[in-house]
Amino acid sequence: MTRPRISARISAISESATLAVDAKAKAMKAAGRPVIGFGAGEPNFATPGYIVEAAVEAARNPRFHKYTPAGGLPELKQAIADKTLRDSGYQVGAAQVLVTNGGKQAVYQAFATLLDPGDEVVVIAPYWTTYPEAIKLAGGVQVDVVTDETTGYLASVEQLEAARTDRTKVLLFVSPSNPTGAVYSPEQVEAIGRWAVEHDLWVVTDEIYEHLTYGDATFASIATVVPELGDKVVVLNGVAKTYAMTGWRVGWLIGPKDVVKAATNLQSHATSNVSNVAQIAALAAVTGDLSAVAEMREAFDRRRRTMVRMLNEIPGVLCPEPLGAFYVYPSVKELLGKDFGGRRPQTSAELAELILEEAEVALVPGEAFGTPGYFRLSYALGDDDLIEGVGRIAKFLGEGR
User: Between 170 and which of 35, 41, 121, 392 could a Cys-Cys bridge form, CB atoms 3.0 to 4.6 Å apart?
Assistant: First the structure.
């Protein structure tokens, strides 16, 4: 019998749908087509200058030309602890922080550290594309709680309880949410946190969009709101979205000391330390003020309102107003099966492919996030491209019969 060339574990992993769409859009642009991409969640702003200058100085320092502790530079770990107290009121020590190669490594290592084969993780859908793959690689079983536009993509305690079994170990909680922009109120966060305490569950909470909320919405960390969670909460975060540092690849995991030590052991064999130059850039980011962040949030807010208005003007599109992150998640279910120049897309994936081919606009279909019938569009791109891109979508969809 011929053995498979690729392991079953790795063969089961899907390519990141968001990065795949972004790569295809960039390839089409390189070929001369005027593609506008709404796929990747990447701010169009440059990293603030003071952060870049800190990295330049670090590159000149021989200390940072060598290996450093696998779990992160001590000064950065302490600064992350201080920043966490400042921004969310959650008090931790430096020994509870692990600096990772971007948020994705933090996601994977959290689940790899917590899960044994067969352990269940309750995941609220729509969900970010990386979560299922990280859970699967760790041997966990994902149990979806599906939400939709009628509730603003928010899950209730009753839905979570219906998904819980004797095998449930972890709740994955994300607010503000990628891909929907949903933000749970402090009262909703508290109710969900107390449910987790009641059933002795771990909570893994991804807080990477903590500074991106709009209107009356406010970010509330479940670790702070429900201190009774104690040492059964793991916080994931990073500098990518808040400081326009997607390419610098610095994230972190905060948790109880035994979890952080175990995850650090894993990282010591997987990657060793994060790039020292990037860590010093992150140190400048988390210790600096939030004025650059406020400027970016103002621009995102403007784009958010523009995109929601334009999308809701398209017949057959229903776009709830997101209150956080920088994504909209409109329903396009009414458009499926319509005739677009002789083609009748039956799924949102087929419709997204058609929009890319015919309107030269890249967006990610809901299939990638666990809920077919929707699109995710990022409004982190420039104002002119946003208006042009949504205008092209509107023109193309308006031709459906």
Answer: 121
User: Rounded to the nearest 10 degrees, how much is the dihedral formed by the CA atoms of 354, 358, 364, 370?
Assistant: -10
User: Is pLDDT at 21 greater than 80 in this prediction?
Assistant: no
Residue type, 179: P
* Cis peptide upstream of residue 176 (ω within 30 degrees of 0): yes
Opening angle at CA 87, ends 85 and 93, nearest 5: 25
Whether the link from the prior residue into 43 is cis, omega within 30° of 0, is no
Question: Distance between CA atoms of 238 and 270, rounded to whole angstroms?
Answer: 19
Nearest residue to 43 (alpha-carbon basis) of 345, 326, 389: 326
Backbone angles phi, psi at 127, to 5 degrees: -130, 160
Residue 377 has pLDDT above 80, yes or no: yes
Q: What is the mean pLDDT of residues 236-249?
A: 96
Average of per-residue pLDDT across 268-282: 98
Q: Can you name the residues that pair with 171 across neighbouring β-strands?
A: 122, 203
* pLDDT for the residue numbered 241: 94
Residue carrying the six token digits 């948790």: 255
For residue 24, the model assigns a pLDDT of 82
| Separation of alpha carbons 255 and 293, rounded Å | 26
Contact (CB, 8 A) for 104 and 133: no
CA triple 220-137-13, angle to 5 deg: 105
> Reading across the β-sheet that carries 375-378, which strands appear in turn?
327-328, 375-378, 364-365
Beta bridge partners, 324, equal: 213
User: What amino acid is encoded at 200 in this protein?
Assistant: D
Name 36's bridge partners: 361
Encode 83-101: b = buried (16+ Cβ within 10 Å), e = exposed: bbeebbebebebbbbbbbb
